[in-house]
Structures are given as C-alpha cells and as structure tokens.
Amino acid sequence: MAESKPSFTLPPIKDNSIGWGPASDVLPEQFRDIPYAPYSKGDKLGRIADWSAPETQKQDNREVSGRTGRQGFNRFNKDPYQSYGAGVSSAFIYTHNEDEASFSVVDNRSAAAKKASAIKAAGGQRNRPQKQQATRNGLRGPNQRFGNQTGRGGRQQGQNRRRFGWKDYDKPQRMRDASVTVGPEWSVLDEIEFNRLAKLTYKAPTSTDIGSYGHINMYDKSYDRINTRNEKLLQHIDRVKYDTTTSDDPIMQQFMQENKGTVFATDSILALLMCAPRTVYPWDIVITRVEDKVILDKRDGGAFDFLTVNENTADPPMETEKESINSPGALSSEATFINSSFAAQVIDQNEKIELENPNPFVGADEAENAASCGYRYKSFDLSNPATGDEEVEPVHLIVRTEVDAAVKTAGSQEPTYLTVRALNEFDPNAQGAGGALSWRKALDSQRGAVVATEMKNNSAKLARWAVQALLAGAEQMKIGYVSRASPKDSSRHVVLGTQAYKPRDFMAQMNLSMANGWGIVKAVVDMCMLLSEGKYVLVKDPNKAILRVYSVPDDAFDGADEDEEEEEEEVEAEEKGDEQKKSSQ
Fold this sequence. Notes:
- The chain has 14 helices and 17 strands.
- It is an alpha+beta fold.
- It has 2 domains: 49 residues, no CATH class; 392 residues, no CATH class.
- A hairpin with a 2-residue loop joins β7 and β8.
- The strands form 2 sheets. The chain has a 15-stranded mixed β-sheet that branches. The protein has a two-stranded antiparallel ribbon with strand order 1-2.
- The termini are far apart.
C-alpha cells in the first residue's frame, strides 16, 4: 500500500482592493453598512474590565499629567495595561438605562484614601503632628521612648482609654430566660410594645387613706454624719418584714368583702407597672378576675422578691459557667440582703410609733421580731369621666403602701414618714460595673457624679423606689451607700454615707412622669375590666421591650405551691431529725 503524502492548501484570501478593512463580500449582510473604528497603538490588552478606575478618572488623569501618546505612564496612573480600546472614543458605545441604574460601585476610592480613612477612624492621627515634629527636630520628651511609646513602662499613648463600641460585635448576645415558664395551654390575648406605653398619660388621681397598720421606729440621725473616712460596718439584725401578696393580705380580703374597691394591688406592683418602659429584666404579674373585681398578685420567688443590680447599664452583669459573686443572681441576692439589713440598722429601737391598728401579719408572740414598717392602705378613683346621661361605673383602686421609719423635723410636731433604701457597690473594675466611680474615692467629693451614674445604671430600680415613696405619702427617701469591705468578699459590707431626697425632686432628676405612670396603670385597669372571669398573666418578654397578656388555667400555679410546701416539709423533717440525733448523742 502506497504511503499518502501530507498536503497543505492555503485558504483563500479575500483582498479589499478599493479600501481599508475586510472585503465587502466577506462581511455578513447586517454588518456591511457599519463604519470601521480604528484603534490606537498605545492600547494594551491587559484586562477585560477595570473596576478600580472609571473612564472619567482616567481621562482626568491624562489631562492633569499633560502627556499624550501612550496613556497610563504618569504619577496618577501607574498601571500601563488598561482595557482594550480605552484611548479612542468608540462609535459603538451602547448604554442600557435599566442596567446602568441597577449597577453601583461599592468603593471607588484609591488605596491611599482608604488607608487614610482607616487610620482616622482608629484614632491614629490624634497625636501625629506632635510625633512628626519631634522626629523632624530629633527631640524626645522626658517620658517618650522609641518614638511612639510614652509613659512609665513604655506603654503606648491611649492604650488604656475606653473605646465605646470597640468590638461590640464580638460580645456574647444576652439571651435571658423568662421569669415564668409559658405552658402549652396558655394563649396570648394581646401584645403591648413599650413605645406605646411611653405615650400614655392620665391625670394623677387624689388618694384617700382608708387605714394604717403596724408600727414604725424613729430614724437614727447619727447615720447622716457617716462618710468615707468614718465608715460603719453593716450589721445583720434579725428582723422579719412581711411582703404578702395582694390576695393573701387579710386587710385586702376584708375590703373585698365590703366592696370598698374594684382593683386591688400593692405599691410594688403598681410601681413596676408605672416604670415598665424602663425595665430590662423579665417579670410577671398574675391577674385574677373575680366577678366585678380585679386582683393583681405577685408570685412567690419571682421578680418582686429580689432587687436588680445595674439592670439598665449598657453592659450588665453576665452569667458565667463558674459560680461568681458578680453574676446577676448573686448580686440580686446580695442587694436584697443589704437593703433589709440597712433598713433595720438605721432605726432607733427605743423610739416607736404605733399606728391606728396592729400589724395584721404577725401574732402577739412575733411582734418583737417584726421590722419597722407601717402599712398604709389608700384608695384612688380611676373612674371614667361622665359623658351625657349615661351612668359611669365607679372604679376604685385599693393599694397597700409601706413606710419604713419616721423623723422629727423642725417646726412640725408630727413626725415625717420616710422610706429607707440602700444602693450597693460590688466592684468598680468588674464586668457589669457600668463605668461607676470608686465610692471610697469619689463619694465625698463627687457625689453628684456617683448619683448620676447610679441613675443611669439602675434607672428602673430607682424609679420604682421614688414611685413607692410618693404613693405611700413619704416626704423623704433615705438612700444609703453600702459597699463591700473587700471587692472579692460579698459577705462583709460597710456603710459609706447616706443622703435624703424628696420623692418629687428625685423623680424630676430622673425625668420620670407620674402622668405617664398613671396612664399605664389606667390602660392596664381598663384592659382587665374587659376580661372575663378567670386567671391571666402579664409577662415582660425576657429579650424584647414587649408585654404579653396570657390566659392561663385556674390551676396554673398550684403545682409550684405544692412543690414549695413539700420542700418546706422536707426541710422541717430534716431539722427535726438532726435535733433528735443531737439529743440522743
């Protein structure tokens, strides 16, 4: 078989003998009438698309540089490889309006502009002029070392300054648990946002005293002379103060039977409703509708039995895996203990004022250990104004208020009632301190700054204290400043000072409006009057500024009460067993 030789045949070449460009018989029919656009020899095919420098910027660079010919070789544009055909205006440019409108360059700044902006945002140019001047003159200050290091130990300038917002994205998200477990059979009736509550207003109703019970002691004025140089140890005095819920109050039960009121509550519940927009931590109120009456109750062991610490600070105390004395739960228990101990310590046990009726919560054998507390029951008229000839159903709010002590003032024969509270300092350098100043250094010389910081970090708690004092008719609020003897020990405390405030002046400093508070109470009462008979729960969402109203079964909290009774019985049985063992030994 003969071998075949390779062959190569040149393709036909179409020559345009009458002009420049391809021959006319080679072009397709649709391209024959389009003129040919030449290109510049200076154009380089380096990139398909250049997003870093738009066409307008390249043309401006060429005009500033003053050079012609090959573009891009100047101090404004150092890249010689530009997009193909950029040097000649083309007749084939087609712009689609919708496509151009939908496209936008994210950041078309140069690298130098981006770097300068980043340095400025980080605060790096704060001291640059002084640094450059010192370097240029070859001089250094007495505390300056190696250029940008100053101070003892070579710390960089501004190293210890607090940058607000620095690494806020890296902070763990606070996901709190609800104050009460929402059962599967609970149904949501309504949701109320805090911004709606802040817009409510109602004229403060007049109060009528309907009874006073218990006794109060006189305030010991020697505690007004305490300061940071003359501190006093906080003592633990065994006194029992009863804070019974509304439905278990025997005086309230008597008023219900006598139909003296429509809505029944305590001053702590009413103050929490008035200050609800300031709260951050979760809480709940049990609402019971019986016939034509509404009863607002608290749950045992709930948010009403403990005080919060730094609830409103930007970075509140955080729960950790390990047990810490600065966790929210530990600080809450510590603050509750401090308040009860301080209120029992600052009174004079020898001077006592008996009110109209004895204490309804203690027997004759327990009266000696009862704390100084006067229970004043008041009635507020929340009836709607009459319109036309229609009869208006009267709505009277019965509230149990409390006063802690009394003090004699000049020019008055009758003593003045006051409430006693205590602010506590745990550790100004710990997480959750909220930028508080050290009380031992600043309480005597900068008390205004200390109070302003506490108003910011504990806005909800202080607002509730002021409202409770105003509802009780107290003319003064005695606030004590109690700090730990050692920041690492939460069992020993010292009193560093006291201060007296008038409730209305204190509320004015906190920008707290009683008209808004009564507006919230009026809205809640009107909502409760529209409910049918049954049990409901008003719950503050643990992570949102929302109130939710749930309809719950009548026995929703009976299981919790039974568990508590069983635990108490077990504790009593264990104590009896221990006593029997000791007696047998």
